[in-house]
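Support reply, case 0932

Customer input (verbatim):
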Amino acid sequence: MTLPSFDELDGGRSWGLWGADDKLGTLNLLTPERVKRGAECVKKGLVFAINLEMHLPDPPLFGRDPFKHEVVWLQNEAGHDEHLSDWNTQSSSQWDGFRHIKHPVHGFYNGIADEDHGIHHWAKRGIAGRGVLADVERWRSSQGRPLKFDTADPIEAADIKGTLAAQATTVEEGDVLLIRTGWLAWYRSTNLEERTEYIGRGHPSVGLRPGPENWRLLWDLHIAAVGADNGPVEVWPPAALAAPDELQAILADPARLDEVFMHIRLLPLLGLPLGEFFDLDALAADCAGDGVYEFQFTSAPLNLHAGVASPPNALAIK
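Our regenerated output:
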């Protein structure tokens, strides 16, 4: 199948490319050949678990509540069970499923009803293939333009292209692209008082600039999914980069909201899964050390019927 370019898509939507009832979006690109291609990347046998600790960020971002973890005795004190309560699947490392965000005009991905989507569709097929890392934070620092982690500092399409070129990294169709912004390393360097103050400021974050240049880049790379080490992948808060007059015009036209909040374009219109809070620092250090930025990528989302999101349970294997 030859995929159209972004500019060739009907209305900037991928709907119908994999059938009218498709619920996988660009995960369809993870063909058996692509799965085998990922396995070919394993040379050293090193495994990098890229899920963040479940209790981080702490306090949670985006107004989410912390979960409770209770360990209880089995009968006759034979051992333990445990209970999680008030657990939000999007409070730590996660995939955003297609139920997470709808387009204000067109609805959910592929025009399918909300209740017919669910992370269980992804879980049943699994996510496995070739992954590539774009260490934008390292490249931007080498260019004398270090990223500002606790502000809405935009990563441009040119930054991603520059990073990939400097790494001599080729993105292949069906790859999982992981983007390191450096936000998580910065976050780990802060204490509880600083984190609380950060939340009080609305937890602004470095990330991809919303708008056509990054939409076009991500689609035209024909990746299966994109993940990052920050919370929203894109800059936060939404609309932080828009000029006041332009923002007023965008907010008055629901069809343009994706220009300030990229989730609205990537999830419901392009069917491109988003991974957030991926722990990429150890992987990035190894890639910088040996100059190899490709690896086998695997992820097993929760088989939760009609689930909105899931921890990725992701591994990068070199």
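We compared this against your earlier run and they match. Two observations from our side: The mean pLDDT is 97. The longest helix spans residues 157-167. Please reopen the case if you see a mismatch on your end.
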